[in-house]
Write a structure and sequence with these properties.
The protein is of the alpha/beta class. The protein is 30% helix and 20% strand. The protein has helices spanning 19-29, 59-71, 92-101, 106-109, 142-146, 167-175, 178-185, 202-205, 242-246, 259-275, 315-327, 347-351, 358-366; strands spanning 4-9, 41-45, 75-80, 112-115, 124-128, 137-141, 149-155, 157-159, 163-165, 190-192, 212-215, 221-222, 229-232, 252-254, 280-286, 308-312, 374-378. An 8-stranded mixed β-sheet has the order 4-3-2-7-15-16-1-17, with helices on both faces. The protein has a 3-stranded antiparallel β-sheet with strand order 12-11-13, with no helix packed on it. Strands 5-6 form a two-stranded antiparallel ribbon. Helix 1 crosses helix 2 (59-71). Residues 188-217, 228-257 form the 4Fe-4S ferredoxin-type domain. This is DUF362 domain-containing protein.
Length: 379
């Protein structure tokens, strides 16, 4: 496979060109105009952010992309699928309210918001993917597959289960219906280190499946609180890993198997199924790089400096370019990285040692989604 072209520009501005115009110039130079948008419904796949979290991409960026698509004759809409866990994005009503609360309204972005898998997360398309090693039929939000063109607009960040959240995760995990997300997550179940657990109950608040209960030292079940420890019922657990991120004591951890790798591979296969044989374009911004996913209702301080904006027709090459840029950045002080030993300049693998971001890229390349080889073109 030939090297992909990845286009890059930093966040510096001068003269009459503001940052949004610079983003539009980037995607124009990267060739977005080579896609026939004329009268085409165009899904802009984005993460609206869980209310309380403020590290998600600002709606201004979405408007800049939507305006560019409209200038090319397209009919853009912003979209995401409902979540698997408890929160304000688990059904379309709450999800729309969350999007509007975070600024993604038709008035601010110039296009409508459609929750791709419908009211309860059950409006899904079954997408055959014979190339998959784990997934032969992806369950994808119907509106995402009904769109004529797919554009991903991604906030690049770290992630507790997949190492990084880039374009592959935005498309693959984000594009899965609730059943699709369940399928991707169900390879492994987390465990509890009872010596570290303080019984605070934060893990249970984020569990959508009632899988976490609390017991005292005598094994009697009760309410969360001092002297209690959490236990996870693996029959009820969906393996989504939400509790891992919610635990401030590092008392919940993934089981010692290959479930993280399996999750990353399944996610790559979902992404490949969604983009296969359709017009596509991908944009990623390395800005406010939080140590956890934007799915959390809070965010920590960015762990590396803002880098810039990237665009490509190849989502795999785009993620690789973003990861390479991440590896060139030193960790910022006064962040969660202060007491972490940095290994091989990799803030992701240093902070999330049980994950390896390379797995999703290697697998995506293996199944033909794209290539990790690229030429970086500065704009």
């Amino acid at each position: 496979m030939e090297k992909a072209k990845v286009y890059f520009t930093d966040f510096r501005t001068k003269g009459s060109e503001d940052l949004l115009k610079k983003l539009q110039r980037l995607i124009k130079t990267a060739g977005i105009g080579n896609i026939d948008f004329s009268g085409k419904f165009t899904a802009i796949k984005i993460h609206f952010g869980e209310p309380g979290n403020i590290s998600y991409l600002r709606p201004n960026y979405a408007k800049a992309v939507a305006d560019s698509i409209k200038d090319l004759g397209g009919v853009p809409f912003l979209t995401d699928c409902n979540t698997l866990y408890v929160g304000q994005r688990k059904n379309a009503i709450d999800h729309l309210e969350a999007a509007y609360l975070n600024g993604f309204s038709p008035f601010s972005t110039g296009c409508h918001v459609i929750i791709a898998d419908g009211l309860k997360g059950t409006d899904e398309a079954y997408v055959p993917f014979p190339e998959g090693e784990y997934v032969k039929e992806a369950k994808v939000g119907r509106a995402l597959m009904d769109a004529d063109v797919l554009v991903s607009l991604t906030h690049f960040k770290l992630h507790e289960l997949t190492g990084i959240g880039g374009a592959i995760k935005n498309i693959g995990m984000g594009g899965g219906s609730r059943a699709g997300k369940m399928e991707q997550h169900n390879a492994g179940k987390p465990l509890v280190n009872e010596e570290l657990c303080i019984g605070c109950g934060q893990c249970a608040k984020g569990c959508a499946h009632g899988a976490i209960t609390f017991f005292d030292s005598a094994g009697v079940e009760g309410k969360a609180g001092r002297g209690m420890v959490a236990r996870i019922n693996h029959v009820l657990c969906a393996g989504c890993g939400r509790c891992i991120g919610n635990c401030n004591q590092d008392a919940i951890y993934p089981s010692e198997d290959n479930s993280m790798e399996t999750l990353s591979c399944k996610m790559a296969e979902y992404a490949a199924a969604i983009v296969k044989n359709r017009p596509q374009f991908h944009i990623s911004l390395i800005v406010d790089v939080s140590p956890y996913c934007d799915c959390h209702s809070q965010n920590d301080a960015p762990v590396i400096a803002d880098v810039g904006m990237f665009a490509s027709f190849d989502a795999v090459a785009l993620d690789q370019a973003c990861c390479d840029a991440m590896l060139r950045q030193p960790p910022l002080p006064n962040t969660v990285m202060d007491n972490i030993k940095i290994i091989n300049h990799d803030v992701s693998r240093s902070f999330h040692p049980t994950t390896d971001w390379r797995v999703q890229l290697l697998h995506a390349e293996k199944i033909g989604m794209g290539t990790r080889e690229y030429d970086l073109i500065k704009v």
